[in-house]
Amino acid sequence: MKEQVLTRFKELFGDEGDIRVYFAPGRVNLIGEHTDYNGGHVFPCALTIGTYGVARKRADKKLRFYSMNFEQLGVLESSIEGLKPEKEADWTNYPKGVIWAFGEKGMQVDTGLDLLLFGNIPNGSGLSSSASVEVLTGYILKDLFGFGVTNQDLALIGQFSENKFNGVNCGIMDQFAIAMGKAEHAIFLDTATLKYEYAPVRLKDAKIVISCSNKKRGLGDSKYNERRAECEEALAELQKVVDIKSLGELSEEQFEEYKGAIGSEVRMRRAKHAVYENQRTLKAVEALKENDVETFGKLMNASHVSLRDDYEVTGIELDTLVEEAWKVDGVIGSRMTGAGFGGCTVSIVKDEAVEHFIEAVGSAYEKKIGYSADFYVVEIGDGPSRLA
Ligand code: ADP
Ligand code: MG
Description:
- The protein is α+β, with helices and mostly antiparallel strands.
- The chain has a domain at 2-201 and 382-387: 2-Layer Sandwich (Ribosomal Protein S5, domain 2).
- Helix content is 41%, strand content 21%.
- The protein has helices at residues 2-13, 93-104, 129-145, 151-164, 173-179, 220-238, 252-258, 265-289, 293-309, 316-327, 354-369; strands spanning 20-29, 41-42, 44-57, 62-67, 76-79, 113-119, 185-190, 196-200, 206-212, 331-337, 344-350, 374-378, 385-386.
- The radius of gyration is 21 Å and the shape is globular.
- The protein binds adenosine-5'-diphosphate and magnesium ion (MG).
- Magnesium ion (MG) binds next to helix 3.
- Its main location: cytoplasm.
- Residues 284-366 form the GHMP kinase C-terminal domain.
- Keywords: ATP-binding, Carbohydrate metabolism, Cytoplasm, Galactose metabolism, Kinase, Magnesium, Metal-binding, Nucleotide-binding, Transferase.
- Residues 8-57 form the Galactokinase N-terminal domain.
């Protein structure tokens, strides 16, 4: 892959000077969904698939960007001066946002850049290609301009730029999982405090399979904001009877004791998901530490049921992928992952069942939904790096 992106870069931008190649992963969240803005825990891992970047510093103030995933747009040119989000700038708003964010944090990028990207994860499908591009850009700026930032800083800068430059109200999970990724480990992250711990993912004779629904999120963004608002309202109602700062502080028992304070049945279900999903995440990490993959899988299944019935963020495409997965022998657990409404599911599948899984779930999906799903058998990888 390195050779392919380097060759394309040289064709477009010439082969002189100090040209460097980088990689930042995508991520998948194993459990802990819609908990990150409720002060709860998440358990994502970085993948060995993600985004490649080729970059070279320029002597002038120009930015020249090209993505092999958006070839029809050609080379998009702009300047490091007066950076602001523009509709015509399309995907380049992501790397530009990061350059802008460095400036906001007192790290001025003073010369331009030639940058080529190639992602081998699907875009807009919940594997966080946007955060991958952000963390990649941050890592490139750090390396080319010598900024003294840690990988955790890169996560925060990436989130800041996505929130403030791209206007997407995302939590910290995606950028954190990508910037802090560690091969063969998932990251047990407390989103309230950013305390984290690496937990080895020892699946023995099983693989992580991502099923991509190819359903675009559509209404997803407005529903995402609606869920956030519902949880905030439920929290405010609970705060009248119990002293908490977030839903993530409640145990299941406490929730059952105080839930009467929530004024609507819908908000009660939303809050229930946030509380129970957080507790499931704690239990799932414990189970994994004890090599109890079966229990981990059952908690994944329960997570999906809760996201489907109480949080209502699944939809027929994700439900079909998961419900068909549950029917396959050798599936240890399966659930939707990411914000929902479209995007991907994540399943843990015994090695010998993977081929049949893809066949069976794929054909049932196509029959019911009318178009096909894509499958990725993935490995857990490291955070961003410069490729030698
Ligand atoms: P997700 O993060 O779940 O993949 P988003 O909608 O948040 O979905 O981000 C997708 C957007 O990120 C793309 O539409 C594009 O603007 C940008 N992007 C991601 N990967 C690339 C890439 N390889 N090249 C150019 N832009 C990319
Ligand atoms: Mg994204």
